[in-house]
Amino acid sequence: MAGEWILMVTAQTPTNIAVIKYWGKRDESLILPVNDSISVTLDPEHLCTTTTVAVSPSFEQDRMWLNGKEISLSGGRFQSCLREIRARATDVENKEKGIKISKKDWEKLHVHISSFNNFPTAAGLASSAAGFACLVFSLAKLMNVKEDHSQLSAIARQGSGSACRSLYGGFVKWIMGKEENGSDSLAVQLADEKHWGELVIIIAVVSSRQKETSSTSGMRESVETSLLLQHRAKEVVPKRTVKMEEAIQNRDFASFAGLTCADSNQFHAVCLDTCPPIFYMNDTSHRIISCVEKWNRSEEAPQVAYTFDAGPNAVLIARNRKAASLLLQRLLYYFPPNADTDMNSYVLGDKS
Ligand code: 2P0
User: Fold this and answer.
1) Are 270 and 232 in contact (CB under 8 A)?
2) pLDDT per residue over 174-212, tens digit each?
3) What is the pLDDT of residues 138-177, one digit of tens each?
4) Which of 114, 170, 349, 351 could form a disulfide with 192 if both were Cys (CB 3.0 to 4.6 A apart)?
């Protein structure tokens, strides 16, 4: 390990959008959810985080930069991820550079981490999901960690719950698990990215401003005050996840769209049922819902599903390219650019 050298790894991780939402923790420090959730991972070239991790004997402390600005690594979540990955580090040898790092050396070495999001941070577009998944994945590569994606997902979960679902492409389920230590609270892939290639995801950015209530504090308040959350976690989501898994396996868009819209609406109803109430959607979001509902009802079968996370931006999932292009026409007609709205729309995740 002697001499001056630097070893680097760069990785890119896409964000994911939940179609069955995670909202509420049963354990705050281990980040264990009150219900299972299911998401779709976006294409890597669109909403994604790119992270470079570097190690060198000349580094005096662990440091991190997000979008070029240094941020503190003192938070418990970063420390949990670093600690869990370091504990699983194995020997690394780079013959080209003449570097040999033993398992024991990793305890003394410090890392520098630089991370960039190609989309607005903390605006309800799941930036922490892509961020922590990428951090854990790139550190695991650097330190030659042998664990599989599911085991890494349980580490990413300790950075941010939704991050565990970004370790896989396609459709992913975060199993809430039963163990008190969280060892079985991890992500599994339900179907890969090729399984349902006709779907087109459009994100309508209603606002890129940072949200007022963070997901972490919002869900804490919901757990403490919302009776609807208790009902949702115990009675609604267990049945809904079974139906959603079937809809995904059978590529049954009518069922998929019905479940996706209903789950988004129930999540926002839980936010309203929280004391004090939390408002993530705005008037533009509500107008988008009305527009999609009216259109779906005027057709023989639903054309588009909508879902909204902890922010006003709409994630619209069209059944195919034709529906996506009609949807864009409608969006541009009802929400013209430069009108009295700050909505811009752009197409993401065309998987065909
Ligand atoms: C989800 N959201 O399933 C839900 C839907 C927002 C609404 O996961 O406290 O940033 O870091 O575990 O993962 C956002 O919550 O919260 C989220 P923490 P996270 O995607």
Assistant:
1) yes
2) 999 999 999 999 999 999 999 999 999 998 988 767 677
3) 999 999 999 999 999 999 999 999 999 999 999 999 999 9
4) 170
Q: Are 339 and 41 in contact (CB under 8 A)?
A: no
- How many residues comprise the chain? 352
| Ligand 1 atom nearest to CA at 31 | 12
14: which strand partners? 48
Q: What contacts 137, CB < 8 A, 6 or more positions away?
A: 11, 13, 152, 156, 167
Pairing type for strands 110-117 and 63-66 reads parallel
Best mutation site among 125, 215, 220 for ligand 1 pocket (most ligand atoms within 8 Å of CB): 215
Name beta bridge partners: 70. 65
Q: For the whole model, what pTM was predicted?
A: 0.93
Ligand 1 environment, Cβ below 6 A: 18, 21-23, 31, 37, 126, 128, 160-162, 215-216, 309-310
Domain architecture of the chain: domains with CATH: 7-191 (3.30.230.10), 200-348 (3.30.70.890)
Pairing type for strands 63-66 and 48-56 reads: unpaired
Contact criterion met (CB below 8 Å) for 157 and 7 = no
User: What are residue 201's phi and psi, to 5 degrees?
Assistant: -105, 125
Structure tokens at 54: 């570097």
Please state, in angstroms and as integers, the Cα–Cα distance from residue 286 to each residue in 75, 110, 206, 324, following that order: 36, 48, 11, 19
ipTM of this complex:
0.99
